[in-house]
Amino acid sequence: MALSNGVCLVSEIVIDALYKKYKPGLFKKPVEAVAGLSLRVPKGTVYGLVGPNGAGKSTTIRMLLNLIRPDKGEVRIGNKSISAVANADFLQAVGYLPENPYLYDHLTLRELLRFAGKACGMTAEQIATRIEALTRQTGIAHALKRRLHTFSKGMRQRAGLCFALLHDPELVILDEPMSGLDPLGRKMVCELILELKLQGKTVFFCSHILSDTERLCDRIAILDQGRLVREFEAEDLLAFRAGKRSLEDEFVAAVGGTH
Amino acid sequence: MLQRVWALAMVTCKEGIRDRSLYGVLLFALFVLGLNVAVAGFFMRDLGKVTVDMNLAALSFAGLLLVFFIGINLMAKDIDKKTIQLVLSKPFSRGEYIFGKYFGLVLLVLSTMALLLVFSSATVAGVHSMYPAYFEGFSWSVFFWAVAFIALQLALLCAIVVFFSAITTSSFITLIFSMATYLVGVTLEEVLFYLKSQAAAGEVVASESLRSVLEVVAWLVPNFAAFDLKTEAAHGLALEPLRLLTTAGYGFSYILLLLWLATLIFRRREFN
């Protein structure tokens, strides 16, 4: 997809020396959420971000989406800074699932998804086709007329996935996509991610479930205290999948000493 | 852009309409309107004026409850529950978000007012038919103008709620600031009038500088009293077109200014 200023999302996403501090209270000391994080996410890869709670995974994702601004550093799409790319154009190519998505409770699932489609400029026909396909794929087609406040946690997660993927984005950002899902739901999300990968989409996700991350990703980064502590590429992942090494051991070795 | 604003407005309005608190507000307003019919016969004089005044006051008060409790909640819920992160992950600009939420609130208020107006008109018509002698000066057109200006007043109040929601992090603070602005806006004109009349009569109850400060405040805080046509409607007084035009212009300009400021502030805000 070409953005209006000529930048294409076919290029890689570069997170370059990002810093972000939060002030937890008026008179409290700022907390460093992300400290000099640098990552490269090539187009078409499934990139997994793992780390203990408070490692800065969600903060990184929010900076990528421009929901919060970095104190220092920048996010680039190819060689263009994200601040130079029109935000609406960039977001047109992005699908985002937050951790524990809070949806509009009084809407039905169909109304919520129609809203997502209209927000992305889709026609009514396109919206109807995508709603049918996605809800069937995620197993919630039977609940299209139900209001969202009647949904279980797992169903909300599935509804959030449909909301994120409705406009068929090129870059899919998932924050704990397996959270709240039963084993069948987890399997469905894994298959969905693999399908996105086959379609050439870029998937950037963070998770605590190391076995899934190991199985799905082309690259994995371990974050701790806002810093990148290890990054694994194709060779490491082959070793994980062959059972020669394990991501869990690497994870414990990388962050175990600091907690 | 318009499609996105409209989509968000519709979602906001539907969320408000399906909120159970709305039924409470509606029941309260319907109770007051019904009470009006029940107690109308108790008034020995000015029955027509009391009926019109009570109807308009019920509409206005129901609108205030709607904006203060449901409207603020609709704005705050998005931020507190982080639904805004989902919305802003779609190609919404911050300005489109502000305008979408605002139009959703206004749509909610207008649809509720339209429903209440049906009952209110029926109440007035019912009392009118029972006691026609008390409605000699009554004019339906002035009554509807008064309702239209209540709606404009509420639309301005919605803009105030959106503005304070954009600058504060707590729905309670938004509620306090919005209520305070409304109360000051409703009463300040009367306070200034009182001070001026006292000064004209030679009695000084406030210093010249305090009066100047209050006059500046009167320009800054929207003058809600300007939208109040209850007296004219109750007494069937003729309305000057120029007054209606300038008041409406004042209201719309204020709304645009508030939404523009809210957008500027909202652009800088972070959603963690």
Q: What is the compact description of this entry?
A:
With 259 residues, chain A is α/β, with parallel strands linked by helices.
Please outline the major beta sheet of chain A.
6 strands, mixed
Q: Which regions of chain B have little confidence, pLDDT < 50, spanning 5+ residues?
A: none
What is the N-to-C succession of helices and strands of chain A?
EEEHEEHEHHHEHEHEEHH
Largest interface: A-B, 35 and 26 residues
What class do helices, strands and sheet pairing of chain B give?
Answer: mainly alpha
Q: How far apart lie the N and C ends of chain B?
A: 25 Å
Q: What is the number of helices of chain B?
A: 10
What is the element string of chain B, with H for helices and E for strands? HHHHHHHHHH
Content of β-strand of chain A: 15-25%
User: How would you describe the shape of chain B?
Assistant: globular
Distance between the termini of chain A: 42 Å
Rg of chain B computed from alpha carbons, rounded to a whole number of angstroms:
20 Å
Arithmetic mean pLDDT of chain A: 87
Gyration radius of chain A, rounded: 18 Å
> Based on the structure, what is the oligomeric state of the protein chains?
heterodimer
The portion of residues assigned to helices of chain B is over 70%
Task: Compute the number of helices of chain A.
Answer: 9
Shape summary of chain A = globular
The number of E-state strands of chain B comes to: 0
Provide mean pLDDT of chain B, rounded. 88
Topology:
The complex is a heterodimer of chains A (259) and B (272).
Chain A: E1 13-22, E2 31-41, E3 46-50, H1 57-64, E4 72-77, E5 80-81, H2 87-92, E6 94-97, H3 109-119, H4 124-138, H5 153-165, E7 171-175, H6 183-198, E8 202-206, H7 210-216, E9 219-224, E10 227-232, H8 234-241, H9 247-255
Parallel strand pairs in A: 3-8, 3-9, 6-7, 7-8
Antiparallel strand pairs in A: 1-2, 1-4, 4-5, 9-10
Helix pairs in contact in A: 3-4, 3-5, 4-5
Chain B: H1 2-17, H2 20-39, H3 47-80, H4 83-88, H5 94-130, H6 140-167, H7 171-200, H8 208-220, H9 230-235, H10 241-268
Helix pairs in contact in B: 1-5, 2-3, 2-5, 3-5, 3-6, 3-7, 5-6, 5-10, 6-7, 6-10, 7-8
